[in-house]
Amino acid sequence: MADIAPIGVRKAATGVEGFDEVTHGGLPFGRTTLLEGGPGTGKTVFALQSLLHGAQHCKEPGIFVAFEEVSTHILKNMESFGWNLSLANGQGLYFLDAQPDYTIPHVGDFNLCGMLAALDAQVALMGAKRIVFDAIDVVLVRTENSVTVRREIDRLHNWLLTRELTAIITHKYPSAEPSAISGVLDFMRFAIDCTIVLEQTQQNGISRRKMRVVKYRGSGFEEDKVPFVIGDSGIEVGYTRAKASVEESDTNERLSSGIERLDAMLGGGYRRGANILITGVPGTAKTTLAGAFTQAACRRGERVLFVTFDSEGREMISNLDSVNIGLAQHEADGLLRLYSARTFRGNSEVHLMKITKLADTHGARCMVLDPLSALGKAEDDISFSLAERLAAWAKTHRITILCTSLVAGDTPLLESTNIHVSSIADTWLHLSYLIHGGERNRCLTIVKSRGTSHSNQVRELILSDQGVALADVFVEGGEVLTGTLRYEKEREELRKREARTTENHRIRKRQDIDIARIQTQLDLLRSELEWKIEEGTLLDNAAAMDLRESTQTRSEISRLRRGDNPAIPGEAE
Amino acid sequence: MSGDRVRFRLYIAGEGPSSKVAIANLKALCDTYFPNRSATEIIDVFEEPATALRDGVMLTPLLCVIGGDTVQKFVGDLSKTAAILGALGIKAESS
């Protein structure tokens, strides 16, 4: 058991699981604690259990003063707890029978000095440091004189203080008959350092036990009522102090979820020691995801405790088999411990303790609760604290725990219980159905995952005999397409792409032809141009020659005609 | 009871008023009803705590009346004389 660092005044550890945490270390050392409760609420068990612990583990021998039940009776009743009471009879434990003898007449004023003297002798004899007075309401019950009662209770209290014994006084309260003691103890409450009240109630036919520290001078304590059970080995208080700082450093290791794509989306997988919540309406394959996680863990050689509340173990294993998740092998190898809790009826406190014990004995590194909601079914008021305690316990033991939970509606944000539970979860996956185009397909949403950036992404969850896979979803016109619609859409996209490619190809070809054609035309025109230019040149030449010739001819003719005048312009020929 | 020797063992606690009253009452009882045939032993539990433990003395004063092989016990400072006498089967003398 972990050492609880005491805070406040010096404490005497009781060894009662959970109680020392509630009180930051145990009972006030050397002081008196008043333990009150109705009949059968467990006062004697608690008192004896802590006395025994003091003797066995704290080297503090103790005396049990029995006023009501005879000590042999008490010892017999405690046999079922398997306590090692061999310390009894003087060595670590001493039982003093101080039951009132009703046959002895009372003939005047009396006091408790005889008992105190006897106790002094015994304390000296064994070096006792702790003492229990069981059922003080019985002690002075025959006295009607309240002055006497007050005086004697005072005497007792002073005696305890001066001896500095860590004392527990049990008091049956409220009781059927009002006793003179009750009134006195009311007064005494001011003087007493610590008061604890035990109660037992019946709710829906199920018995529930709660304890509350009403007062604790000089120390902080958990003020709320905490549940407890009287288990196989004594009282166990259901209380785990939430760790102030979660050690993040050693949770970089990632565990596979069993689905490759999901691992990628989660940045490698679930974190080691994380608290994973999978919500969804019935039939959305929550158990399948749990199974995938389990299989992955077993493949790594890790031990898993799978607690199922809904189905019988065999049924579930064969269901998972149909999606290629084979757990039978791992169960046979001893890695997987399947615990079917369907038939458990009763106190969920007890149940929680049973489950945590199972995990301990199995040495589980991973745990599945399917579904978690079945654990807290009966009592809504403490179901959250149950989940909290389970989460805290898992974190302390570095167990990665995966819980599935039912939601009534399809929106994860509407369920208040799940909101509470989800605030504890490190990773929250939600499974839902998407109904579209006459089909119903499963979707997985990562609602939250600490340490990764994939929140709020939706994927389609596909189950087949090959296993579990995730597929992208298509979003068209703001709607998510899954299933065959998705398939059709995928095909269509492919077709479109091909069509585009073909079209491009065709256009390209066309262009090539055009280019070639234009090129040819260009060449033709160029040739024409050259030819025209040449033609032009020729004409020019011809014209020039013409002119030269005609000029020459006229000159010749003029010469021949003996004309002195050079060519007379305008003389026409 | 009549005629036989009677032994009284009175357990008291210290020398407080309760003890003194008890002792006085016992003396008166002895002198009146058991003259010259009683033996008295007084044990102070504070001085002999081991004896208290051994004898199982829880409440004080405690008177043990031993006559023959019978032991009759009384708790208290012995103020209620009538009750003691009644239990012992002795007729009270009006004095």
Structural class, from secondary structure content of chain A? alpha/beta
Low-pLDDT runs of 5+ residues of chain A are 409-416
Beta fraction of the residues of chain B? Answer: 25-35%
- H and E order of chain B: EHEHEEH
Q: What is the strand content of chain A?
A: 15-25%
Number of continuous helical runs of chain B: 3
Tell me how many strands of chain A there are.
24
Total helical elements of chain A: 15
Explained architecture:
The complex is a heterodimer of chains A (573) and B (95). In chain A, 40% of the residues lie in helices and 24% in strands. Chain A is built from 15 helices and 24 strands. In chain A, strand 17 (366-370), helix 13 (380-396) and strand 18 (400-406) form a beta-alpha-beta unit. In chain A, helix 6 (146-163) runs parallel beside helix 7 (180-191) and helix 13 packs parallel to helix 14. Chain A starts with 10 loop residues before the first strand and ends in a 13-residue tail after the last helix. Chain B is an alpha+beta fold and 95 residues long. Chain B is globular. A 4-stranded mixed β-sheet of chain B has the order 2-1-3-4, covered by helices on one side. Chain B starts with 5 loop residues before the first strand and ends in a 7-residue tail after the last helix. The chains are: A alpha/beta (573), B alpha+beta (95). The interface between A and B is medium-sized, with 23 and 32 residues.
Give me a quick take on this structure.
Chain A has 15 helices and 24 strands. By secondary structure, chain A is of the alpha/beta class.
